[in-house]
Amino acid sequence: MEDLRVAVVGSGPAGIYAAAALTAHEDAAVDVIDRLPTPFGLVRYGVAPDHEKMKSVAVALRRVMEHDRVRFLGNIELGADLSVADLHRHYDAIVVANGAAVDRRLGIDGEDLPGSFSATEFVSWYSGHPDSALDKFTLTAGTVIVIGVGNVAIDVARVLLKTARELRTTDIPDHVLAVLSHSQVRDVMIVGRRGPAYAKFTTKELRELGELASADVIVRPAELALDEASEAELADNAVARRNLEVLRAWSERAPQGRPRRLHLRFGLRPTVIHGDACVTGMGFGHGTGPSVHVPADMVLRSVGYRGVPIPGLPFDDERGVVPNAAGRVLSDGAVVPGEYVAGWIKRGPSGIIGTNKHDAAETVRCLLADAPALPRRQVRDPDEIIDVLHQRGVRAVPWQGWEAIEALEIAAGQRRGAKQVKVADRELLLAAALSRPSPGC
Amino acid sequence: MTYVITLPCVDLKDKTCIEECPVDCIYEGERMLYIHPDECVDCGACEPVCPVDAIFYEDDLSETDTPFADMAKEMFAGLGSPGGAPRAPKVPDPPFVLGLPPQEHDEV
Fold it and tell me: Does B45 touch chain A (CB under 8 A)?
């Protein structure tokens, strides 16, 4: 077969696992394109700073990116700097793995009040995402309500409840650590609309909340009562059964008088966010009983994500994904030659990091099966794409550019006793990534 | 703390978990598969895909299964970090596993 050049859009786990599966094919060369100057997607900007073991998945992802036939083109946005048509001219196939960038909304009154945010906004801020304003959060709130019962809700609650001292040796950016050290947060309430049997937490993450040194976990025994549907759910869900055991043990535990408290609440249906100038509380429906008002100063919603349409690619607005069959992009039900998807933009925002390996492998199997019949690219020279970008005034960040960012972050870490401390400012990232050492240095 | 493979894997080795592991930390022995406790990133991808429910997070192990955790730790302490199961040769089963009676399995 002729050589095969593939553009993978997105350098998160799905994109990099797609690149890994492609490099197993010896005729394939891959450009991994990311709109950010930094690779690894949600491993860098989603996995919580104190989950260092989970973050070490980047070691495996790095091995792929350092493969001879893989090239990183950071700081390049599909739809802005390059179009889908550009990619078709320069590549034989495209794999879009750009994730699900937007959070779902609750669709209730008061959602746009100051003090009401998506959990994603908070995660982006504490992860040092370059799109997040440095002063986005001040944490002058005493009580924070987190709507949603998945691992993201747990992450944001844990970061709010830990002390700055505990997070000092993580990669959390300096400006975030400074805000956390003056945090006024005393109470965090994680709220699920249904009973505990339907919570999407993984047991390991849930259990971690019980080990917080600075916070008591408070669960109301009455909210753990099970109806018939919950019993049925538990019967075929081992994780939910284990979660319930953990919650029951907490419900019997007396508070230890720690400075902060985490409340896990179930069966509360969000109906309204109250406040005039800013959030003052939330209203919930509670079974068939009267509605419940909970005073709060800040609300974080964590009720799922959706993809955003990419100019030039079909989009299923209902599901927030690119319509596809096993990763082959479909337009009105027909396969679009040379276009593929992997990860959240393919299957929706579900699963964990490992899920993407399997998911990307499926897409690449389809791509390689189709490859002999794909229309070939017009532009053969792989460097021409760099020239095209240059003519448009855009400089791609190469892998060495990322390594320069990393070196800067490792140096920043040394000042704080951390392995690495993230740089959040886009200009600083680009300055580090694109500064060329003079020859001979 | 890490994920641990237990008795139902012995003499079966379905290997779906190997496909799923994002860091290639699941190694094959003659009689069963083993998770490298230092290479595992605790993502939990392997646990739900095991067709015989052999994989548990260490906290969730029953008392009879704790030897599987201890044994994996000991074994890999001796082997170091081969850094990627697909390129590594089969690992030697530890004495505890070698001493287990043959395990019968239904078709899965």
Answer: yes
- Interface residue B44 vs chain A (CB under 8 A): yes
Question: A304, A279, A266, A293: which is closest to A118 by C-alpha?
Answer: A304
Residue with tokens 């990183």: A72
Residues 334-373 of A with CB under 8 A from B: 352-358, 361
Where helices occur in A188-338 by DSSP H, the ranges are 203-209, 228-235, 238-251
Contacts of A13 in chain B (CB under 8 A): 22
C-alpha torsion A243→A249→A253→A257, nearest 10:
-30
Q: Measured between alpha carbons, how far is residue B1 from residues A205, A213, A354, B37, B74 in Å?
A: 13, 19, 18, 7, 14
**Contact status of A204 with chain B (Cβ, < 8 Å):** yes
At what angle are helices A228-235 and A238-251 packed, to 10 degrees? 120
Q: Is B96 on the interface with A (CB under 8 A)?
A: no
DSSP conformation class of A189: E
Residue A335: strand pairing partners: A330
Residue pairs spanning A and B at CB distance below 8 A: 59
> Going by DSSP bridges, is the β-strand pair A328-331/A281-285 parallel, antiparallel, or unpaired?
unpaired
Q: What's CA B105's distance to the chain center, in Å?
A: 17
pLDDT digits (tens, 9 = 90+) for A206-246: 999 999 999 999 999 999 999 999 999 999 898 899 999 99
Q: Which of A53, A54, A358 sits opposite B20 (nearest CB)?
A: A358
Q: How much is the ipTM here? A: 0.84
CA distance B74 to chain A (A): 20
pLDDT in tens, A9-22: 999 999 999 999 99
Q: Report how far Cα A152 is from the mean position of its chain's Cα atoms.
A: 9
- % pLDDT > 70, chain A: 98
CB within 8 Å: B42 and A204: yes
pTM of the predicted structure, to 2 decimals: 0.93
CA distance B73 to A30: 38
Question: With an 8 Å Cβ cutoff, are A57 and B60 in contact?
Answer: no
User: CA A2: distance to chain centroid?
Assistant: 36
Pairing between strand A4-9 and A28-33? Answer: parallel
A186 and A259 in contact (C-beta within 8 Å)?
yes
Interface touch A354/B46, C-beta < 8 Å = yes
B43:A60 CB<8 A: no
DSSP A221: G
Q: Closest to A352 (Cβ–Cβ): which among B23, B43, B60?
A: B43
Q: Measuring CA to CA, which residue among A100, A84, A91 is closest to residue A349?
A: A100
> SS3 for A92?
coil
Mean pLDDT value across residues B6-21: 94
